[in-house]
Write a structure and sequence with these properties.
Blueprint (H helix, E strand, L loop, with lengths): L1 E5 L6 E7 L21 E5 L12 E6 H6 L8 H5 L23 E5 L2 E2 L1 E2 L4 E2 L16 E9 L9 E7 L7 E10 L7 H5 L7 E15 L3 E20 L4 H4 L30 H7 L19 E21 L4 E16 L11 E3 L2 E15 L2 E14 L2 E2 L24 E3 L6 E2 L8 E16 L2 E16 L5 H4 L1 E3 L8 H7 L4 E5 L5 E17 L4 E12 L3 E2 L5 E4 L4 E4 L1 E2 L2 E2 L5 H6 L2 E3 L17 E9 L7 E11 L8 H6 L7 E5 L25 E4 L7 E13 L3 E21 L23 E24 L2 E14 L18 E2 L6 E10 L13 H7 L2 E10 L3 E2 L16 E2 L5 E6 L2 E3 L4 E2 L14 E2 L3 E13 L5 E9 L32 E9 L1
Parallel strand pairs: 2-3, 5-10, 20-24, 30-33, 37-40
Antiparallel strand pairs: 1-2, 4-9, 5-6, 7-8, 9-10, 11-12, 11-53, 12-13, 13-14, 14-15, 15-17, 16-19, 17-18, 18-22, 20-21, 22-23, 23-26, 24-25, 25-36, 26-27, 26-28, 27-34, 29-30, 31-32, 34-35, 35-38, 38-39, 39-40, 40-41, 41-42, 41-43, 43-44, 44-51, 45-50, 46-49, 47-48, 51-52, 52-53
Length: about 1000
């Protein structure tokens, strides 16, 4: 809250009390000065604005009341992003807001500190929970989402800004705990259909926040801690070898023969003396069946397990503010979040194959110095530090596979079980391997200077950001050892395993230490010009430069698509020092200097000028009606995990993988000698390429908006906006398929030999969004808060989030509905204090009765959304045919009587003629919609004048609506085509919470 005084000689002064200024918001309060003595004054009050009167940008501001009162599933701000007007997608860390893109389309900040995952181009997030790593919602003061035509001070297509609470002259804070568990949770729809009980589930969230004065009126603090303890299991079925088979007895399974003699083993029993000791050791990790099995002799799906996800998260923050005097102040903010232990089911049983640690550590710190140079001039300087380090480490890390297979390339940075596959008959044995934590570091210097000259409010600034993205040596299947058994020699895969006779074996070198770095420069100038009482113009310009990414050791290898040559970075005529000599000799490789590239295998985009223009016109003699609009050009940062890291880490000549083939009729490989000599390297390796002149995505945004105050409490907004994005990233664009489809092997007809797939990061895609928004807002007043909006979106693009065009030589044919974009969405968030108890309209008596009937609040978030688009496809069954989309036979795409057994009309689609492309459009059909209603009931009770309790009962998906996922849409699996076997929203979950506030 602010207090503003307006004075002029010969007029009464005017005091404006309770000016509520939300984050980065312009508040208009028209003042009329009346003649009178200077000593006389007039006092007025100013409520929080309902409409935006002086800016063209489309903004959603959420204040403390909404943040702490609404039922947020997960207690992070992600849920508020998902219900923002203009959001038509499901990802909380990479949302598509008003046409913004998945890769780098949103820019997140906390107290001015960028908290972006520079690898993935979104917010720093926690694995599988999809929740961002922002501080506790009990520390949030304000939350702002700016989705279109933001002023020049903002970068990125959509700006998401968070301001944390600071201390005051009074101590205040909260103590809280929330719990949800299996007992009051509904069972999943398909669990019920398959007669499965609810798996184990328990979730506790608890914490404390508080702040106050250190030195009254000068120095303040505010801190918080929040913990999450979640235990949730998934029920999985597996096929494993029976105890009899592990003992060599294959009676009732199939006839087993001795590979050395070709004769059957007597009684289908392999003598224990013939067992390979390595197979016995690895087989001991395989669980024993616990169900009768679905096929002969107890085989098939014979093991069921509740594989638990164990997620522990601790989040803390601390803020300090100090006012040296009325003109100089500083604040220091530090946050820390850690997910550990963080066991994540990854498809294996409890014993192996999962992530023993899929957690993260996120840290940030900032120092901000604010100086008021004069009543019309102000400067803000900030230094910030941000680190986000995810980890993906498998189980059995203390197991050293070199103890069984000493000819593996070692030493290994991390252990794990080798990958043992049984042709799908008996599941498999494996571990995920992984690497030590690999942090992303970002340090940023920012200076913003603002000054007022007459009718102009100028703001200008610069920022420099230094980004480092590191990766430690990692191991996976090849590095831990990979073995395949298919029953070629004994007639059963597990029998071959016991005897130690694989058909293939693979070994490889661990990935390299990798340290990528670049610098991002930004500068802007903004002029907010009050042309007249009715008209405001916003004029600005921003420049952004993301320098080309470098690697500490120069480890880069790229493909020159114009010349058709594979290029390894060189400097002074010497190739990257960590290149493996065997691979340099095996493949046609050219040094970057010899190719005319110098020492840069990728180049930066230097032409990123972004003008901004907006207007706000108040046609009447008040600020209750505003017509506004704007245009702006915005540039996205290029994430490094979508191609740049791959050309620096996974490409030849930096990682070696060798394959060994056993004999066709007699085993020539054994587990005792699985890697005899030098193995075969790929004759036609897959490689990754990045368009050397990679460019930052350009988003051109515009909007036209009409806003109107309805009475004193409501604000109504109607907006049309557009977002045209060019230079959109294609991630995994396939650049080495034959020019035409024809019979024969694909490899023999690839244009660039000897290479197989060339998966490319290119930035030549495009996207076009038209969107209409209607929003009605009531700021919290007299017990009621309401924000409801409807959004219609049509996005057409030719770029999937991660896929190549069907025809890589005509990407325009992939133009279709934007991936994950819902056409119609409606969101409502509301809180209402029931009118009972002391100080209310009804049952106003005090005492115990007043405490019982008073203090009740209901709150709800309601979401109604149409489905997401998807394509109808097929899998080509002839060599040389690589198309993947179906033909359209008729326009009745959906079944006449839709159900989960038949959502699509199979007669509307057909597999195209061999060696032709399907004529169906990408993402031409839409899946089922969603109806989600979350509800909370709050009871607030005053214990003393300054202490109160708040009891909360919350139900997420309260009506337990079944929201189905998209159906199977592969024509080559007709038994499943059009059937739905999953849901998009979990069944109802009930949560109870208790807070003590002071």
């Amino acid at each position: 809250m602010y207090k503003v005084r307006v004075e002029s000689s010969g007029f009464r002064s005017v005091d404006i009390n309770e000016v509520r200024l939300l984050l980065n918001q312009t508040v208009r309060t028209d003042v009329r000065l009346e003649p009178g003595a200077v000593e006389q004054s007039v006092t007025i009050s100013s409520a929080a604005p309902l409409i935006q009167t002086d800016s063209a940008s489309i903004v959603n501001n959420v204040d403390t009341h909404a943040v702490v009162t609404l039922p947020l599933n997960g207690r992070t701000l992600d849920r508020l992003i998902l219900i923002t007007a203009g959001n038509a997608s499901d990802s909380p860390s990479n949302p598509k807001l008003a046409g913004s893109l998945h890769w780098g389309g949103s820019f997140y900040s906390i107290d001015g500190v960028a908290i972006n995952d520079t690898g993935n181009g979104g917010a720093a997030y926690s694995f599988r929970t999809q929740l961002s790593t922002t501080p506790s919602i009990d520390t949030i003061q304000e939350f702002k989402i700016e989705t279109n035509s933001a002023k020049a001070e903002h970068e990125g297509s959509a700006a998401i800004s968070i301001i944390t609470k600071g201390g005051t002259n009074q101590f205040h804070g909260s103590l809280f705990e929330f719990n949800r568990n299996r007992e009051l949770a509904a069972n999943a729809y398909f669990n019920n259909a398959n007669r499965q009980t609810r798996p184990p589930f328990n979730r506790n969230e608890f914490g404390v926040s508080g702040g106050g004065p250190i030195v009254r009126n000068k120095t303040f603090f505010f801190g918080s801690y929040e913990g999450l303890r979640q235990r949730q299991a998934t029920t999985s079925f597996f096929p494993y070898a029976t105890p009899a088979m592990k003992a060599g007895n294959f009676a009732g399974v199939r006839d087993i023969r001795d590979p050395l003699s070709g004769l059957p083993f007597p009684n289908n029993q392999i003598p224990s003396a013939r067992f390979d000791s390595r197979a016995v050791r690895l087989g001991s990790f395989m669980p024993l069946p616990n169900t009768p099995g679905t096929t002969a002799a107890g085989t098939g799906l014979n093991y069921v397990a509740n594989v638990g996800n164990v997620i522990n998260v601790n989040r803390s923050s601390l803020r300090g503010d100090h006012h040296f005097n009325s003109a100089n102040s500083i604040n220091v903010v530090a946050t820390y979040a850690k997910g550990s232990p963080y066991f994540v089911s990854n498809g294996g049983p409890n014993e192996y194959g999962n992530f023993a640690d899929g957690g993260y550590i996120t840290k940030s710190a900032s120092l901000t110095y604010n100086r008021t140079i004069s009543p019309s001039t102000q400067n803000e300087f900030r230094y910030s530090y941000f680190s986000h380090g995810s980890i993906r480490v498998g189980q059995n890390t203390s197991f050293d596979p070199l103890s069984l297979f000493p000819s593996l390339y070692g030493p290994l940075p991390i252990g794990g079980l080798p990958n043992v596959a049984f042709n799908g008959v008996y599941g498999r044995i494996y571990d995920s391997g992984g690497a030590d934590r690999s942090p992303q570091l970002n340090q940023q210097l920012t200076d913003n200077f603002s000054f007022i000259r007459g009718r102009h409010t100028f703001k200008t600034g610069i920022d420099i950001s230094f980004s480092r993205i590191s990766s430690n040596p990692a191991v996976g299947g090849a590095q831990l050892g990979s073995f395949t058994f298919n029953g070629r020699y004994s007639n059963d895969p597990y029998a071959d395993f016991l005897l130690g006779y694989p058909i293939t074996s693979v070994r490889g070198t661990a990935s390299l230490v990798n340290l990528l770095y670049y610098t991002r420069y930004g500068a802007y100038f903004q002029d907010d010009w009050q042309v007249s009482k009715k008209l405001t113009l916003n004029i600005g310009m921003r420049y952004m430069l993301q320098t080309q990414t470098q690697e500490r050791d120069g480890s880069f290898a790229n493909f020159d698509l114009e010349k058709g040559v594979f290029v390894v970075r060189s400097e002074g005529g010497k190739l990257a020092p960590l290149s493996l000599p065997r691979l340099l000799q095996a493949y046609p490789i050219v040094g970057s200097e010899a190719n005319g590239w110098g020492s840069d295998v990728i180049k930066a985009d230097h032409n990123n000028f972004g003008p901004r223009f907006g207007f706000a016109y108040r046609p009447f003699n008040n600020s209750r009606t505003v017509v506004r609009g704007g245009f702006g050009m915005f540039y996205n940062v290029i994430p490094v995990y979508i191609g740049i890291r791959q050309i620096s880490q996974a490409n030849a000549p930096f990682q070696l993988s060798e394959t060994y083939e056993s004999g066709v009729t007699q085993p020539t490989l054994t587990l005792a000698t699985p890697f005899p000599g030098l193995g075969a390297i790929a004759a036609n390796p897959n490689i990754t390429a990045v368009n050397r002149q990679i460019r930052n995505t350009l988003a051109q945004q515009w909007n036209f908006t009409l806003e109107r105050e309805l009475g004193a409490d409501f604000g109504l907004r109607a907006t049309y906006l557009g977002n045209k994005a060019t230079r959109v990233p294609w991630y995994t664009y396939e650049r080495n398929l034959p020019l035409t489809q024809a019979p024969g092997t694909i490899q023999s007809r690839r244009p660039f030999q000897p290479w197989a797939s060339i998966s490319t990061l290119d930035t030549n895609g495009n996207s076009f969004t038209h969107q209409g928004q209607l929003e009605l807002i009531r700021r919290f007043k007299n017990g009621l808060y309401l924000q409801t909006n409807y959004t219609w979106t049509k996005t057409l693009d030719n770029v999937a989030i991660a896929a190549s065009p069907q025809n890589p030589y005509n990407a325009a044919l992939d133009r279709g509905n934007g991936e994950s974009i819902r056409r119609h969405v409606a969101y409502t968030s509301v809180t209402y204090d029931l009118p009972f108890g002391p100080g209310k309209r009804f049952l106003t008596q005090g005492g115990v009765a007043g405490k019982v009937v008073g203090g009740w609040t209901v709150a709800s978030i309601m979401q109604f959304r149409t489905g997401t688009p998807f394509s109808v496809g097929f899998s080509p069954n002839q060599a040389g045919w690589y198309a993947n989309r179906a033909n359209v036979v008729n326009s009745d795409f959906y079944a006449s009587n839709q159900s989960i057994e038949g959502y699509l009309n199979p007669n509307a689609f057909a597999v195209p003629a061999p060696f032709t492309f399907g004529n169906s459009a990408r993402n031409m059909v839409f899946g089922p919609g969603q109806k989600i209603i979350d509800l909370s009931l709050l009871k607030s009770t005053n214990i003393t004048e300054r202490i109160r309790t708040e009891f909360r009962a919350e139900a997420f998906n309260m009506p337990n609506n079944v929201n189905f996922g998209n159906p199977a849409a592969d024509l080559t699996a007709p038994a499943n085509f059009g059937k739905i076997r999953g849901t998009s929203v979990e069944a109802r979950v009930i949560q109870f919470g208790l807070k003590i506030l002071f």
